[in-house]
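U., I forgot to send this yesterday:
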Amino acid sequence: MPKGGPAGGDGGKGGDVVLEATAGLSTLVEFRYKKHFDAESGRPGSTSNKSGKSGPDLVIPVPVGTIVYKNEGEPPRARRIADLSSAGERLAIARGGRGGLGNQHFATSTRQAPRYAEKGEPGESAELRLELKLLADCGIVGLPNAGKSTLLSVVSAARPKIADYPFTTLEPQLGVVRVDEFSSFVMVDVPGLIEGAHRGAGLGDRFLRHVERTRVLIHLLDGSHQPEQILRDRETVEAELRAWNPALLERPFIYCISKLDLPEARAHFEALAQELPGLRGISAVTGEGVRELVYAAYEQIRRAPEPVRLEAEPPRIVLAPKEPFRVAVEDGVYVVSGERVERLAQMTDFDNDEALGRFERVLAKLGVERRLRELGIHEGDTVRIGDTEFFYS
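Result:
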């Protein structure tokens, strides 16, 4: 306002982009279709020194058990920054920029009504990789067709696809197993492991990571196989677990022969009872031994330690350079870099002469102009700061 003094309010802060672990989700499939997310910008300031409204945060729900990696550097290197293993846990992955200052902040005794303001600070951006490791108390492992999906469907409300051919289950299945009126636990059916699974055979490397979160493992062995073959089946699965993560074999194991409704399976169970101490037998068809297996798993879970939470990599300490800026000559262009000068360029309105004058004064105060002259800059040479280029005059 003429002779009215400065009256421009500050701009509002931009919203943050936040990941939130949400109990109701079980997959990352939503990110197959939408991969780019933007929080809202802050609102501009208005007259009478009124500040603009800050932009709301963008909260992106992810399943509990999501591990977050951030791509950094050139070439990009994925660094683990969080393990969202508790419902409601939040992680700000990109901060919104602060709002620009209104002209009220630039008034002086000699410039009582400045006709320029500051642009808002650009927000952060990040490129992430999300990996899901299911959180389950008990995992069922075994070769294809051992009866894992059938067992899960009997002890819980889960309804996995079941058929008489290998790899019926193409993704891990979760089910809540009710022990009694007040007790329950979560069981995961890990799709069939075969020899070479830790290298990706049979999609095994996509499933083995889910075993790492479990506290107890039920190793289901196909009772229709001959005893010698059952022992080889056991070694095959345990070799894959060992190759993926040797610590998995330190978990409590419950060995269980399936398909006791078949006469040969019952005979094989009795033959192996001495070979495998604590061996259990079940028939998911008749229900024989199923409740006893559930109780045994629950007791093991109660005694087992909590699953290990993955720690994010420690932050790397980067010493700030002594100089607040750097100047280099690249193909005849004087490139000025540094967080402060680049942010100043981003927040300056170069179409406004008064704002441009302030920009030049700040550069001179920082010593940028003196350094350019030392490097031999001439009038008309190109100077680049961030994404902004201009001619030196």
